[in-house]
Amino acid sequence: MAYDEYLADRIKNQLKEKKANFTDQKMMGGLLFKMDNKMLCGIHIDKKYGDSLLMARIGEDAYLKELEKPHCLPMDFTGRPMKGYIFVTPEGFDSEEDLSYWLDLCIAFNPLAKASKPRKKTS
């Protein structure tokens, strides 16, 4: 199953409106959005949930507060939640206003986020 292309277009349009300098990258059936070479947000197909989820990198300060919202889940790929990252279910980003809220949180945290170390290319 591929990622939700309609959601990808919505995210791209909003990031352009916000004048965010971003790139996107396909990853394991999903799509990752990066700003300043750091993960900003993404689209993840969750087999357990059965739908596309918005991955949002919002930082640890916002993490606990946002997890209290009904459409937020801890981002958990390995059985261990990643602090500072959440999944938002489709009901939580259905409107453009809701999607904008999550993207604003991601953009606000981005300058504080640490970039991943680049992987060495193998020949």
Automatic annotation (TrEMBL):
<protein>
    <submittedName>
        <fullName>TfoX/Sxy family protein</fullName>
    </submittedName>
</protein>
